[in-house]
Design brief:
seven-stranded parallel β-sheet; alpha/beta; about 375 residues; six-stranded parallel β-sheet; Rossmann fold
Length: about 375
């Protein structure tokens, strides 16, 4: 069986890229089609020799700009680019989609299994938030006008191409709900896995309380709501360690007080040890699923999560973590004041994370592949 893999943007490491890497590992001979590729960031995960990209009308220097998080300038070209890929020589295409990959054209020959991280959130449930952020600054009104028109056209395209995949896999019940709401299609839920590396550190004792600091592990972007954690810890004078990098880093550092520590990018081995030594991990974003709470639990560490999105499916309130109700500094502060890590058993956290092993994920994906190929 000849397989191709599609993932729209290979420009940073995140949960979606983690899933795409698993697909690439499952099918090591499969070429990987993507709209943009940053070898410096992801060359070790996705070797250049396997990458296929479209021919764009803009220059190489413009592509480098797009790869450095500013791909919004080329959004209007992405539907045409994703449709330009030819899969006639393949038996199966596995797409990993957060915006465009589900729109590939297969003409009915290869079967198309699409793993959906979410219908593009900036086109649907987060449109107004994105437009409001774009409105700021001298050029804000122009940026808002451009994005408003572009989003309208992309929404039409997004809905029109939704029937193209043969099978849709949702990464959570929340995403399954969005698929039904925006695309009017059924889907099966297969949750993303966490890698075995997170289970290989048994330093943490059964009673949690090694070092009294809170932890955030995240890409530093605005929608992650990291600013509310910084402001809450500033006011309560609580130590907070932040691991990650991203376009919002400069703004966040300006907000940070003396108890906030930025560590930048760290390897998985380093992050595992940082997880293990944290009092609790703060998860402040409305993610489609969110691997961080499970990684933390695998290391025996409880989670304080915003009660929304995928976190409601991965955090067991009172057992593997607790929730705060609203994405505000005040709501998080109230929860932090009452948080007692001694109430959480590290072995309970680890046992919960065991349910999300990579081996289980691969088995479920293979079962879906067998079903879809058997029907051809």
């Amino acid at each position: 069986m000849k397989v191709a893999i599609v993932h729209e943007l290979l420009t940073r490491r995140g949960g979606a890229e983690h899933v795409a890497k698993i697909f690439a590992d499952m099918f090591p001979e499969a070429p990987i089609y993507t709209l943009l590729y940053n070898e410096e960031k992801l060359g070790d995960w996705f070797p250049k020799e396997r990458i296929k990209t479209p021919n764009y009308p803009f220059t190489h220097s413009s592509r480098l700009i797009a790869q450095s998080f500013n791909h919004h300038l080329y959004l209007s070209q992405f539907p045409t680019a994703i449709e330009s890929f030819n899969f006639d020589d393949f038996d199966l295409v596995i797409s990993s989609s957060s915006a465009f990959a589900h729109g590939i054209i297969t003409n009915g020959k290869p079967k198309h299994l699409c793993y959906v991280h979410s219908p593009a959130r900036y086109l649907w449930d987060s449109t107004h938030d994105v437009l409001n952020r774009a409105s700021k600054g001298i050029l804000g009104p122009l940026k808002r006008l451009y994005l408003h028109k572009t989003f309208h056209k992309l929404r039409i395209w997004d809905a029109e191409v939704a029937p193209r995949p043969d099978v849709l896999i949702a990464n959570s019940k929340e995403v399954q709900r969005r698929i039904e709401l925006y695309w009017r299609r059924d889907s099966k839920v297969i949750t993303p896995p966490i890698d075995d590396i997170w289970f290989s550190n048994n330093l943490k004792p059964v009673t949690c309380n090694l070092q009294p600091h809170f932890l955030i592990v995240s890409t530093l972007t605005q929608y992650k709501n990291i600013d509310i954690a910084i402001l809450a810890c500033n006011e309560l004078k609580l130590p907070l360690t932040i691991v990650g990098e991203g376009p919002d880093e400069k703004r966040l550092k300006k907000l940070a007080g003396p108890t906030i520590k930025f560590m930048g990018y760290k390897s998985n081995e380093e992050v595992r040890d940082i997880y293990t030594n944290a009092k609790a991990v703060l998860f402040t974003s409305n993610d489609d699923f969110g691997l961080v709470p499970l990684e933390a639990n695998a290391c025996g560490t409880p989670v304080i999560a915003l009660k929304v999105g995928g976190a409601k499916e991965t955090v067991i309130d009172g057992e593997t973590g607790i929730f705060f109700e609203a994405p505000t500094k005040e709501s998080l502060m109230n929860t932090l004041k009452n948080f007692d890590d001694k109430k959480f058993n590290c072995e309970v956290c680890k046992n919960h994370a065991e349910k999300f092993r990579r081996s289980k994920f691969e088995e479920e994906i293979k079962n879906q592949i067998n079903k879809i190929t058997a029907s051809s």
